[in-house]
Design goal:
Largest sheet of chain A: 3 strands, mixed
Oligomer: heterodimer
Strand order of the largest sheet of chain A: 2-1-6
Shape of chain A: elongated
Number of strands of chain A: 6
Largest interface: A-B, 36 and 31 residues
Largest sheet of chain B: 7 strands, parallel
Radius of gyration of chain B: 18 Å
Distance between the termini of chain B: 55 Å
Distance between the termini of chain A: 32 Å
Number of domains of chain B: 1
CATH class of chain B: Alpha Beta
Structural class of chain B: alpha/beta
Number of helices of chain B: 8
Strand content of chain B: 15-25%
CATH topology of one domain in chain A: hypothetical protein PF0899 fold
Order of helices and strands of chain A: HEHEEEEE
CATH architecture of one domain in chain A: 2-Layer Sandwich
Shape of chain B: globular
Chain lengths: 114, 223
């Protein structure tokens, strides 16, 4: 829902790094997005296409490396991947919840420039 | 084409501003609570009840976040509390920059407690730190006992979970035992309060906890 503001920030960061590297054009931006970050790829892409015309990032490719959530059960310590729909139930002991080990990531890993 | 490593958190600008807000609040000795819930759970009612119960003990200030209108701020101002309304103009959450602007319009030196009423939404506010000391999720019997399963992120991050509208229990199917077990398993660190803003039942336990949290903050700031 808040992807416009987030995409503006992605563009700012990418432009900043491209500028520091003396680049003329950004060809790709590689993002790492945890599935728990509530970021919708298509929506980021939509705003990116809207924001970039006239910048050196116009036409750049966005890639999304998705990180699935991983939890550790607080009851029995089992590590598991919560499945969509039955989130947070330990497959070993059935306990609800768990400590989140991964899935909240949201960062720019790298950009490709020329 | 060459690749430049970046490894930069996209929300880092927000996190830095949140840290500045936190330092400003600490300097004033103000405990800040980020109050999050779905629309209609009773955030403003909880603020008014809290103010009433803590009168003479803690001086409360309020930030009201809404997509539009001044309705909530008017209710809070009518109770004699310093209040700033933020209208996000369609935005689904408050961010640290919005709170920074609001802090500049509040008499922090004459306050002990700040409650920030976030935009009614169980999803987006979870991703944006404001600089708060405590994250409180409010839900109500009318929403059903399965909300922590459906919106886990907010409940997993909560320092306290407050269940409102106990006065409606006879009319609803909310299973309090099931809800307690669920949040205990998901987030055993969260304090759980069940209350009614309408008749005041259970409010004291919540406000006592808030008072203790403020004392604990002062002890951390002035060891």
């Amino acid at each position: 829902m808040h992807e416009l503001a987030v995409t503006q920030r992605i563009l700012e960061i990418a432009l900043e790094h491209a500028h520091q590297a003396g680049a003329q054009r950004i060809g790709a931006i590689h993002l790492v997005v945890g599935d728990l970050s509530s970021i919708v790829d298509d929506s980021v892409q939509f705003y990116f296409d809207y924001l970039t015309p006239g910048t050196i990032a116009e036409g750049a490719r966005l890639t999304f490396q998705r990180i699935p959530p991983r939890c550790r059960c607080r009851e029995c310590g089992t590590e598991f991947a919560p499945e969509p729909g039955i989130l947070w139930q330990c497959p070993a002991c059935g306990a609800w919840g768990g400590e989140v080990l991964q899935g909240r990531e949201f960062y720019i890993e790298s950009i490709e420039v020329e | 084409m060459r690749t430049i490593p970046v490894i930069q958190e996209i929300l880092s600008a927000n996190d830095e501003l949140a840290q500045e807000n936190r330092e400003r609040l600490n300097r004033a000795g103000v405990l800040a609570v980020n109050l999050m819930s779905a629309p209609g759970a009773g955030k403003t009612s909880l603020i008014l009840r809290t103010a009433q119960a803590l009168r003479g003990q803690l001086r409360l200030g309020v930030v009201e976040g809404d997509v539009a209108s001044q309705v909530d701020a008017d209710r809070v101002a009518a109770a004699g509390l310093p209040v700033v309304q933020i209208n996000t103009g369609g935005g689904c959450h408050l961010d640290a920059n919005m709170l920074r602007a609001a802090l500049g319009r509040l008499p922090l030196e004459q306050m002990d407690l700040l409650i920030v009423e976030n935009v009614g939404n169980l999803i987006c506010p979870a991703s944006f730190r404001l600089g708060e000391h405590l994250r409180v999720v409010l839900t109500s019997l009318a929403e059903g006992d399965d909300k922590p399963q459906k919106y886990p992120d907010l409940f997993l991050q909560a320092d306290a979970i407050v269940v409102n509208k106990l006065d409606l229990e006879a009319y609803l199917d909310f299973d309090r035992q099931r809800f307690r077990k669920l949040v205990q398993a998901m987030n055993p660190h969260a304090a759980l309060f069940e209350l009614s803003c309408r008749n005041g039942e259970g409010v004291e336990a919540w406000t006592t906890w808030l008072y203790q949290q403020r004392q604990a903050l002062l002890a951390r700031l002035n060891p």
